[in-house]
Inverse folding.
């Protein structure tokens, strides 16, 4: 509303200035019988108070008219300049304070996710992270896009994601992951190199358009390379060959319509456990009714439908099907072994 009010004031000032100019032109044509060009010239130099000579000596009526034109136009001109200046100064100050507020908030964030680029892929990523209740920061270079979205997105900053300064402002040193979704592969490469140099432990996911870029991105430190076109093509093929399977998997997302969701549980809390813990003796299925469908070893090996005697160790993960209440209860049980 403040922005529209400022624009309204600018419009009013310009309208008054145009009105004074038209009055001046009409007055010189009527009183001094000036031609249209001479009347415009006299009006402009009078309003601007530049002190140029008149087209020809003024009559008494012309002098009186000029005095009133100077008085009214000077006040109007000063008002118009002050309105325009204050509007843009206000905008700059508002943008500056807004950015400082965001950066101050980001400094307190830990283990968040950084999204570089707010195009189609960036927007979809942000929507998914919102649904997963993940904290994230968006870096977008286009000021227009930032201005259009800063009211609805809490943490969005303008800047070049390939520079140290911007990534540091986004909290890269304390972030757990970075997603670079820029449209040009070379830009994603530079972002990955910069982020990896600032935070060696950060998990990086990069968008890529060409398969030839994958190797370079991997060398730059990217953990996962995503090809949107390939993913889209794969999903379309599965939709026509196994439509019910896709629908079933969609219902398992954390923000799906089904109460049962697919979750991953980190077993990092088992570091201080004094006994050997297995899926069976923890009794997740019996006590809370949750289904364990996968297991990831600390070395990165995936086990589908793990056996009951699978030993849970630090840095391993469990993949489960269950309600939010069941997942919360399972995390509480594991936390007891910390």
């Amino acid at each position: 509303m403040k922005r529209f009010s400022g624009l309204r004031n600018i419009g009013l000032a310009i309208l008054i200035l145009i009105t004074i100019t038209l009055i001046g032109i009409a007055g010189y044509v009527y009183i001094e019988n000036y031609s249209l060009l001479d009347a415009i010239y006299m009006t402009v130099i009078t309003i601007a108070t530049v002190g140029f000579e008149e087209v020809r000596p003024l009559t008494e009526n012309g002098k009186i008219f000029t005095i009133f034109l100077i008085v009214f136009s000077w006040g109007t001109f000063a008002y118009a300049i002050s309105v325009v200046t204050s509007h843009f100064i206000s905008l700059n100050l508002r943008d500056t304070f807004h950015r400082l507020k965001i950066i101050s908030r980001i400094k307190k964030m830990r283990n968040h996710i950084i999204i570089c680029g707010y195009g189609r892929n960036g927007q979809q990523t942000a929507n998914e992270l919102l649904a997963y209740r993940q904290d994230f920061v968006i870096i977008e270079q286009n000021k227009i896009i930032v201005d259009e979205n800063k009211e609805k997105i809490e943490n969005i900053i303008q800047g070049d994601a390939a520079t140290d300064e911007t990534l540091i402002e986004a909290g890269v040193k304390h972030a757990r992951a970075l997603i670079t979704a820029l449209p040009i592969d070379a830009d994603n490469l530079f972002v990955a190199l910069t982020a990896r140099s600032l935070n060696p432990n950060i998990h990086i996911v990069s968008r890529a358009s060409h398969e030839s870029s994958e190797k370079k991105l991997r060398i730059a430190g990217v953990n996962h390379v995503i090809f949107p076109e390939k993913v889209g093509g794969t999903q379309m093929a599965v939709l026509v060959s196994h439509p019910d399977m896709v629908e079933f998997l969609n219902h398992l997302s954390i923000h799906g319509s089904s109460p049962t969701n697919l979750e991953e549980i980190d077993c990092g809390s088992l570091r201080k456990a004094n006994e050997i813990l297995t899926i069976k003796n923890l009794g997740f299925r019996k006590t809370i009714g949750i289904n364990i469908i996968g297991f990831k070893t600390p070395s990165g090996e995936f086990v589908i439908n793990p056996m009951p005697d699978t030993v849970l160790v630090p840095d391993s993960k469990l993949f489960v099907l269950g309600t939010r209440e069941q997942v919360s209860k399972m995390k509480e049980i594991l936390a007891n072994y910390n």
User: Anything to note?
Assistant: Residues 137 and 145 are 15 Å apart (CA to CA). The first strand starts at residue 113 and ends at 116. The chain has 13 helices and twelve strands.
